[in-house]
TrEMBL record:
Gene3D superfamilies per UniProt: Nucleoside Triphosphate Pyrophosphohydrolase
One Gene Ontology CC term in the entry: cytoplasm
Gene Ontology MF: a single term: pyrophosphatase activity
InterPro entries per record: DDP-like_NUDIX, NUDIX_hydrolase-like_dom_sf, NUDIX_hydrolase_dom
Names of the cofactor(s): Mg(2+)
UniProtKB keywords: Hydrolase, Magnesium, Metal-binding, Plasmid
Domain Nudix hydrolase: 12-143
Name the record gives this protein: Nudix hydrolase domain-containing protein
Length: 148
């Protein structure tokens, strides 16, 4: 169950956890982006901390709920980015810790299927689709970090 975002003592920003869902094929690394519910901009699955749930597991739950994917989530943080979450008329500064999630299952039906679109794209295309510069940087560097 989601709880209110906790503020980081260092930054004063709300903390969230997210994933970069990906798959690797002969064509290279492809990542999954989804649309946000309110502004319809391209984002990654992310959400608030969940009580009793480790950060990487909470991020994997968000991937299922928001994007309809399941897989193997890495326990190590890939990186983080900042963004301003719009809540009503207010803007809440957030920092998102991001984990890689190797997609093993893509569902046709999932909890937020009627609220979001999803798109599989290569890393450089994904970087051009998102608005957050820090997320774009993570996406640009993801392919080289994934294909070792």
């Amino acid at each position: 169950m989601p709880i209110k975002p906790k503020r980081s003592l260092r930054s004063g920003k709300a903390r969230q956890y997210g994933v970069i869902p990906y798959r690797v094929s002969a064509d290279g690394v492809r990542v999954l982006l989804i649309t946000s519910r309110e502004t319809r901009r391209w984002v990654i699955p992310k959400g608030n901390p969940m009580k009793g749930c480790k950060p990487h597991k909470a991020a994997a739950i968000e991937a299922f709920e928001e994007a309809g994917v399941k897989g193997k989530v890495d326990r190590e943080v890939l990186g983080s980015f900042d963004y301003d979450k719009v809540v009503g008329r207010k803007s809440v500064p957030c920092v998102v810790s991001v984990f890689p999630l190797l997609v093993r299952e893509e569902l046709d039906a999932w909890p937020e299927a009627d609220q979001r679109k999803r798109a599989w794209v290569d890393c450089s295309e994904a970087a051009g689709m998102v608005r957050e510069p820090g997320l774009a940087d993570l996406l640009r560097s993801f392919e080289s970090a994934t294909v070792r």
